[in-house]
Amino acid sequence: MKNIFKYTFALLAIGFVSCDPEFDSPVTDEGFYTSGSADLSKYVSVGNSLTAGYADGALYITGQENSYPNIMAQQFSFAGGGEFTQPLMNDNVGGLLLGGAQITENRFVLAVGPDGSPSPVRLVGTPTTDITNRLTGPFNNMGVPGAKSFHLVAPGYGNVAGVPTGAANPYFARFASSESATVIGDAASQNPTFFSLWIGNNDILSYATSGGAGVDQTGNFDPSTYGPNDITDPNVFASVYSQQVDALTGAGAKGVLVNIPEVTSIPYFTTVPRNAIPLDAATAAQLNAQFSAYNTQILPGLVGVGIITPEEAALRMINFSAGQNFPIMTDDDLTDVTAILQGPPFSLPAPLAALLGQLRQVKSDDLIVLTASSVLGTTPDPSNPQGVIGVSIPLSDQYVLAVSEQARVTAASTAYNATIQALAGAKGLAYVDAKVALARVANGGVAYDGGILTSQFVTGGAFSLDGVHPTPRGYAYTANLIIQAINDTYDATIPMVHIGNYATITVTNSP
To answer: Which SUPFAM superfamilies does this chain map to (predicted)?
Structure first.
């Protein structure tokens, strides 16, 4: 039963070739391209990991060089744009050091294993970027991986002393202007003539990627009480986002606002099949016999004493059949009946009561996260070959984003997007509907000069090996979307790029 789920990469090496970016038009005569009513001479980009150029589970030089703001700045240079600087990492390994000790992981690479099959692995190597070596700015790219909306206005978010406790961000600590600086303050102090702002993804993403392990903080207006995986209250988001837009437009700068995509469309949530457990008829029958008492006696008994509803009992039913099956899981949204099952009238042994406490089977509308592929079908206890995760051992809730949890994510992102769009309209700023754009990539793909860009993990070309962040090709697509919105809003003629000339995933064992 080991290794039930495996990555399948058909004809992986075909087409995964990169070359230097080129422009759509060879015309470079001065005055051919214009910025319209926008002034691109001092462009500052503000955001999180997407803005920074994060990819493959880390921040590294090549990713930063292919960040969408850097791609845009290269195009802006044809229409009056000025210099664009970034707080570059020291290497392509990707990890961060704090006083010589590594505090973040190296990036993923797609390496070929001993059996000849490619799979994502962490690059082996020693990073050289130490956050105690503060860079001298200012920097035009103010993208800070891990930042949530309210972090951008938090003093001390770049204080190295706060990194070990989580009070500060190691990426911002590298280039903050001072220990008490704010991200938005450092951005606005540069007096940009043009800006881009893309923030809010992390306000829901960490909740989603943790399988809903956090708390939906809707109704709690104090972000200082939030945990790292919590959903930000929409009113908190609206307040801080408005502050950020006001700060960036205070000196008359024009800019572009980007909304929040549907995070459940990314490969992190769409790669692992829900029915990942293959069973023959005999094994399925054996499992059904083992869960028979649970289905026919325990669940009705819990309904009878008023502990759970009939609807919850139906949700908790376990059933296997010959073929592909949904794994069993724990669901922290269900009533925890562990203690009840240990007492009368059930009187179950503690281990069995714990197993059944919040047990159900994954449903067709649930989403299994990418990291579940490393544990599904494995036997964590070698002395118990029957103890298979997903079959006789529940898949932990952290690996499944349930329908109820998806609804919380959608509700929050919908509210965030309403704020973003309203402010873009009120301020006369360009607006990019990234939600619609990602949906196109996820549902059939987007045609470009070299093929089709899809959200298929590894082979689709749009997403890097972490299943969340784009490849250079995906960032080029993003840059074109934003440039198009700028052109439409400000009557500009900024050239776009050939998406196919930017790299996607390659098979490599080195940085």
So the answer is: SGNH hydrolase
Q: What is the spatial distance between Cα 144 and Cα 49, in angstroms, rounded to a whole number?
A: 6
Q: Which of 193, 71, 212 is nearest to 143 (CA)?
A: 71
**pLDDT of 309:** 97
Closest CA to 94 of 56, 67, 47: 56
The 10s digit of each residue's pLDDT in 383-423 is 888 899 999 999 999 999 999 999 999 999 999 999 999 99
Do 380 and 415 lie in one domain? The reply is no
From 82, 41, 57, 44, select the one nearest 183 (Cα to Cα): 44
421 located within any domain: yes
Is 25:439 a contact under the CB 8 Å cutoff?
Answer: no
| Token pair belonging to 509 | 């064992």
Cα angle value 510/13/66 (rounded, 5°): 60
* Angstrom distance (rounded) from CA 167 to CA 213: 20
The three-state secondary structure class of 255 is: strand
**For the chain, which ranges sit under pLDDT 70?**
1-31, 115, 507-511
End-to-end alpha carbon distance in the chain? 35
Are residues 238 and 217 part of one domain? yes
What is the per-residue pLDDT for 509?
56
Task: Check: pTM over 0.70? Answer yes or no.
Answer: yes
Q: For the purposes of burial, counting CB atoms within 10 Å of the CB of 14, is it exposed (0-12), middle (13-18) or buried (19 or more)?
A: exposed
Q: Is residue 126 part of a domain?
A: yes
Distance CA 410, CA 408 (A): 5
CATH number at residue 66: 3.40.50.1110
How far apart (Å, rounded) are the C-alpha atoms in residues 107 and 309? 46
Q: How many domains does the chain have?
A: 2
What is the Cα–Cα distance from 142 to 145, expressed in whole angstroms?
A: 10
- Phi, psi (rounded to 5 degrees) for 467: 75, 5
Furthest C-alpha separation in the chain: 85
Distance (Å, rounded) from C-alpha 68 to C-alpha 469? 12
Helices (H), 29-104: 49-52, 61-65, 68-76
What pLDDT sits at residue 118?
A: 77
The alpha carbon torsion through 371, 372, 374, 377 (nearest 10 deg) reads -170
Structure tokens at 105: 């992981």
Q: Does residue 122 sit in helix, strand or coil?
A: strand
Please tell me whether residues 449 and 488 are part of one structural domain: yes
92, 99, 107, 154: which is closest to 511 by C-alpha? 92
In a domain, 18, yes or no: no
- Specify the residue for token string 């495996």: 6
**3-state DSSP assignment of residue 477:** helix
Q: What residue spans of 166-259 are helical by DSSP H?
A: 170-173, 183-188, 202-209, 234-249
